[in-house]
Design goal:
By secondary structure, this protein is of the alpha+beta class. The chain contains 11 helices and 5 strands; from the N terminus they run βββββααααααααααα. The N and C termini lie far apart (67 Å).
């Protein structure tokens, strides 16, 4: 009797159907768009729309080739570095338009500019604790930076604008602005359920990333014995006020220069990201679709080169 070889591959579950047999059927999509039918023990939970590493055995089921799942692991539980995970999941989901390793290099180059001991302790304390998720989570479920790596990509783009602001307005404290940008959206990793098919969590709906950020800055400041510092207060204010308007989640408007700069840089990047995506889908000489985040205006894509 010829032993059929085991096969291992990553696949996204398109559908999960219960049957009257001891196994349920999965329709999965491979990275090359091939579709396969797998059979998995009825006691195993597999979630539609998510990616797994499957170990399977080819079988003949009623004259059709199918595959019996011997073992499977969710992509989140597979030990991969950022570039490896990006390569695997990029076949199934939208990723940031810049490699995650490049985004990480940009952000950490700015973090190295922080020399103030208190700002550094608070910022690096939270960054190091949440680094893994920070580079994978989107910035939103739709609209701006709504793809894997979106929060970090948004952060890195914002940081790239810091130099111009500080050079033009030298009264801005660069270290404080850098720290505020890094921390302003970091708790979207708790506001959203996961990085590959996110929805808002209970905590996200009832508390939100702004309030979470203020709370976590206070917690790390206590741990680092710097809670009574002015730096802690300024960082909390920057996170608290970065949406500017109360109906967008900020109970306070910016009242320090760096908080105002953070708000405008955040607003610039979020809106220009949406506009850039719309322009990619628009032919020269035509207008974009109506853009909700830009007061429902339509923008003309010129024919200029």
């Amino acid at each position: 009797m010829k032993v059929k070889p085991m096969q291992t591959f990553y696949a996204k579950v398109d559908s999960y159907n219960q049957t009257t047999y001891e196994t349920n059927t999965l329709s999965v999509l491979l990275k090359d768009d091939t579709r396969l039918t797998l059979r998995v023990d009825e006691t195993q939970d597999v979630i539609e729309g998510e990616v797994y590493l499957f170990e399977v055995e080819p079988i003949d089921f009623k004259g059709r080739e199918q595959f019996l799942v011997q073992h499977f692991t969710h992509i989140s539980d597979v030990e991969l570095n950022y570039s490896e995970k990006e390569k695997v999941m990029g076949a199934f989901y939208n990723f940031a338009p810049i490699p995650i390793d490049d985004i990480k290099a940009t952000i950490e180059s700015f973090l190295q500019k922080i020399t103030n001991p208190t700002i550094k302790a608070i910022t690096l304390g939270l960054y190091n604790k949440h680094e893994k998720d920070f580079y994978l989570y989107p910035a939103a479920t739709r609209f701006h930076h709504a793809y894997i790596g979106g929060v970090a990509h948004h952060t890195s783009t914002m940081l790239s604008l810091v130099e111009g602001f500080v050079k033009t307005y030298p009264y801005l404290k660069e270290e404080l602005l850098i720290a505020g940008i890094v921390l302003h959206d970091i708790f979207k990793i708790i506001e959203l359920s996961n990085y590959y098919a996110p929805e808002y969590t209970k905590e996200g709906r009832l508390i939100g990333h702004i309030a979470m950020g203020v709370e976590k800055i206070g917690e790390i400041a206590h741990q680092e014995n710097v809670y009574d510092s002015e730096e802690r207060l300024l960082l909390q204010h920057m996170v608290l006020s970065h949406h500017y308007y109360g109906n967008f989640g900020s109970p306070k408007k910016p009242n320090i220069p760096e908080a105002l700069a953070l708000h405008f840089i955040d607003n610039i990047d979020s809106k220009f990201a949406v506009l850039g995506d719309a322009l990619k889908q628009t032919k020269p000489g035509e207008f974009t679709q109506s853009l909700g985040v830009l007061d429902r205006e339509r923008y003309y894509k010129s024919k200029l080169k």
